[in-house]
Amino acid sequence: MYSCKTDQEKVIDIHDLLPVASSNESDTTEKIENPYQSELLDFQLAIPEFLGISKCDEKHFLDRFTADTSSSLYLITDKDTTIYRDYVFQDSIRLKGAFFNWLDHLSDGEELMIKDPIKIDRSSAQLFTNDTLIILLTGKRANDEVWKDYFISKGFTDWKYVLRQNAGRKAVWYTMKDKKMIKL
After folding, report:
1. Using alpha carbons only, how large is the chain's radius of gyration in Å?
2. CA 55 remoteness from chain centre
3. Three-state SS at 39
4. N or C: which end of the chain has fewer CB within 10 A?
5. Sign of the C-alpha dihedral, residues 105, 107, 111, 114?
6. How high is the pLDDT of residue 28?
């Protein structure tokens, strides 16, 4: 290449004109983080065997009702999966409507009273409810005593109803006051 003013030849390297990548190849791989990682760590305090957590897309009868917030998660161990569901309602009237409609659905049209044995799920299950919150656990680890202790550690020392069910059986009704379970 020649300049108009001089007779000297100037060589331009093609690499000086091409754009240069600003990152290394190793930087281009993105780390995919589980959005439920903090919940997993929290649940692992109760049951250390939980190895993974993911969103549960299976619909439940309680999903029909307008909870202010709700979540459904798979809690995974190397042998089984527990489904954790929670429903937070604006007030006790909405919760009672959802809870008693669900019980009516489970009773197959038979009249059901509080304390009557009822089958919540085919597998083990445990339900905790107060005035604005329903927590439902289903699966092999659902009926573990550690869940009561876990919820106490989170500040939930009183529950209006706690239903506990072993696989293939009917649920037994309890209430919890001041961290003590009382059979109804």
Report:
1. 28
2. 7
3. helix
4. N
5. negative
6. 46
Task: Answer yes or no: is pLDDT of 25 > 90.
Answer: no
Three-class DSSP category at 150: helix
DSSP assignment of 71-111 equals EEEEEE-SS-EEEEEEEE-SSHHHHHHHHHHHHHHHTTTS-
Separation in Å, CA 167 to CA 87, 119, 120, 164: 23, 9, 10, 10
What are the strands, taking DSSP E only, across the chain? 52-55, 69-76, 81-88, 125-129, 133-138, 159-165, 172-177, 180-183
Domain ranges of the chain: 50-183
| Rounded-to-integer distance, Cα 88 and Cα 132, Å | 6
Q: Are 150 and 39 in contact (CB under 8 A)?
A: no
Do the Cβ atoms of 171 and 134 come closer than 8 Å? no
Q: Vertex 126, ends 125 and 127: CA angle to 5°? A: 130
Q: How far is residue 105 from each of residues 58, 121, 142, measured CA to CA in Å?
A: 18, 12, 21
